[in-house]
Write a structure and sequence with these properties.
Blueprint (H helix, E strand, L loop, with lengths): L5 H13 L1 H4 L15 H15 L14 H26 L8 H13 L1 H18 L6 H7 L1 H17 L5 H7 L3
Helix pairs in contact: 3-4, 4-5, 6-7, 6-8, 8-9
Length: about 180
């Protein structure tokens, strides 16, 4: 029996994988060229949130008292742009799109950003509690920068705020990224 050529084997495999019966429950067709929320971009959003919430600990910028407002402003603009796009993708994926324009995603993103000061206060108490509960911790900065458990708490706090705003899917993805 003759062995099929590599090209033939690949072609047959592609045909089998493209057969509709093999992917019926596993295929998501994007409507109106709207992509699914991006796990990579959502991780970037969490990273930007951390850089805003804990200036100097996260991000690559050298921040001081003279430049902090500028850096936070740039990061908030970046967050708004990225989050708006991902919220819109979440709305599209959830089939809640009917009657919902892109202005809803913009508004939800702005509402989330407006809660960042309270989120910072809450996370500051989380960092302090972690520090006080861990005799090995040298300082709160160590907790903020080094503790994976604290980074997970950040994810959960960010996701919870988005959940309270009824943002679809995005909170779930962000919490899963904490694991």
């Amino acid at each position: 029996m003759e062995t099929p050529s590599a090209e033939s084997l690949l072609s047959q495999t592609v045909s089998r994988l493209a057969d509709e019966s093999s992917y019926q429950q596993l295929f998501h067709s994007c409507r109106d060229e709207e992509a699914l929320p991006s796990a990579r971009v959502l991780q970037q959003i969490v990273d930007v949130c951390r850089a805003i919430l804990f200036p100097g600990y996260y991000g690559n910028e050298r921040i001081n008292r003279q430049t902090i407002k500028y850096h936070i402003g740039v990061m908030v603009e970046t967050l708004h742009k990225l989050l708006t796009k991902e919220i819109q993708a979440g709305i599209c994926f959830s089939n809640q799109r009917r009657g919902i324009g892109p202005d809803v995603a913009v508004s939800l993103s702005e509402q989330f950003i407006s809660h960042l000061p309270e989120l910072r206060e809450l996370l500051a108490t989380d960092a302090e509690a972690t520090y006080n509960g861990d005799p090995a911790a040298q300082n709160i900065g160590e907790v903020i920068f080094c503790y994976p458990g604290f980074r997970a708490i950040c994810n959960y706090r960010i996701a919870h705020q988005l959940y309270l705003l009824k943002v679809p899917y995005i909170p779930r993805i962000i919490t899963e990224q904490a694991h």
